[in-house]
Amino acid sequence: MRVILLGTPGGGKGTQAKLICEYFDIPHISTGDIFRGKIKEGTAEGKEISEYTGKGQLVPDRLTIALVEERLKKDDCKKGFLLDGFPRDEKQAQALDEIMNKKNEQINFVFLIDVPKEIIVDRILGRRVCPKCGESYHIKYNPPKVPGNCDVCGTALIHRADDQEEIILDRLAIYNQTTAPILEFYEKKGILHKIKGDGGIQDIFAQISEILKKA
Q1: Where in the sequence numbering do the catalytic residues fall?
Q2: Residue 96 annotated as binding site
Q3: Between 3.40.50.300, 3.30.830.10, 3.40.640.10, 2.40.110.10, what CATH number should domain 2-29+80-126+163-209 receive?
Q4: Which residues bind Zn(2+) (predicted)?
């Protein structure tokens, strides 16, 4: 089972990805996690990534594609995987096709989580993340048990520098410009499924899991 999860920043991809991967026992491959890992390692790639993300800019295709291909070569991807945050434009979608062709595999499902802009801004402004283990929370919708601290490791939560309204709106504008070609790309393949993302977490998961279970 090879799945792609698409959606705007703050649209709930990460939460749904975790539920899907736990239920269907496949690895969750997030470009955000890959980027943060490289930054933490202090590699040359990580330093380059940090320069872009610190300004709220997107990491260039050449670097993103190379890192995703590197990740998909690992053994845990042999039985399937879920891609979260990739591809983000048509060039990346075509590059992913090339990667899959090399492996004699193909993407089986593409889900678009569709969320109104007002809800996205509210979600991101209230988001808090753990800098140590990567767990994500929301001050209103998904608060930690102990205010300000991660439930998993107890580390103090942070409000990411790029989770500001001006940066959010810029990211949404960029996303909207690049998404249409990707949707058309996968719609032609007959594997695109649009999911209403303005409901509760379990409601959204039910829509996705129902489609996956039928397969």
Answers
A1: 13, 88, 127, 160, 171
A2: no
A3: 3.40.50.300
A4: 130, 133, 150, 153
What burial letters (b/e) apply to 105-132, b meaning 16+ CB within 10 Å?
Answer: eebebbbbbebeeeebbebbbbbbbbee
Q: pLDDT tens per residue, the chain (215 residues)?
A: 999 999 887 788 888 999 999 999 999 999 988 999 999 999 999 999 999 988 878 899 999 999 999 999 999 999 999 999 899 888 999 999 999 999 999 999 999 998 888 888 888 889 999 999 989 899 988 899 999 999 999 999 999 888 888 888 888 888 888 788 899 999 999 999 999 988 888 999 999 999 998 87
Residue keyed to tokens 């520098």: 161
The residue extents of the domains of the chain are: 2-29+80-126+163-209
21 is in an annotated binding site: no
30 annotated among ligand-binding-site residues: no
Ligand-binding annotation for 88, yes or no, is yes
pTM of the predicted protein model: 0.77
